[in-house]
Amino acid sequence: MPFRDVLLQHGTPVALTDYAYLPTAVAGAVVVFLIKLSEESWSRLFTALDAAVIGFWAITGVNKTLAVGSGWLPAVLLGTVTAVGGGALRDVVLGRVPAVFGGDGLYATAAVAVAGVTVICVYLGVPGIGVGLGVTLALAFRLTALEPAQQPGLAAPVEGGCDAAAPHRSR
After folding, report:
1. What is the radius of gyration, based on Cα positions, of the chain?
2. Cα–Cα dist 154/65, whole Å
3. I need a surface site. Which of 76, 100, 121, 155 has the fewest CB within 10 A?
């Protein structure tokens, strides 16, 4: 995220200097173009991927901040801003209200939690565990915070509770 790199005063933003960014984006666009998914399947996939990506961006923000010698608090803040800002930018480009503003459950909270766990793991000398734990934590926060109708593989509750969905038997 260029904003993060500018705040860290760490030279030119990586997206402008690393040649892997453009081919990765083009490959992703080609895959999405070639694979046909129903709206329901896409919604389920997007929900899970969005949750994981929050974790990855928070981890990236923390690691870049710690790499330039900043402390734990700036790392947590920039990890959170990286995750939430990236999702908000994506939503704006897609013409949607950013999830963080739209009442989406635990969007920023997941980013803060992942950033905090990542900082702790880096300070303990186990950054690899921090990556796995961070992404798992983001998935857990986001998927449990969503309403049942939005969770992948779950249906919305039937009005009237369990009795309304059960067939009535005569005695």
Report:
1. 19
2. 38
3. 155
pLDDT over 60 at 51, yes or no = yes
DSSP track, the chain:
-HHHHHHTT-SS-HHHH-TTHHHHHHHHHHHHHH----HHHHHHHHHHHHHHHHHHHHHHHHHHHHHTT--HHHHHHHHHHHHHHHHHHHHHHTTS--TTTTT-TTHHHHHHHHHHHHHHHHHTT-HHHHHHHHHHHHHHHHHHHS-TTTSTT-PPPPTT-HHHHSPP---
- Summarize pLDDT for 75-121 with one digit per residue, the tens: 999 999 999 988 888 888 888 888 888 766 678 889 999 999 999 99
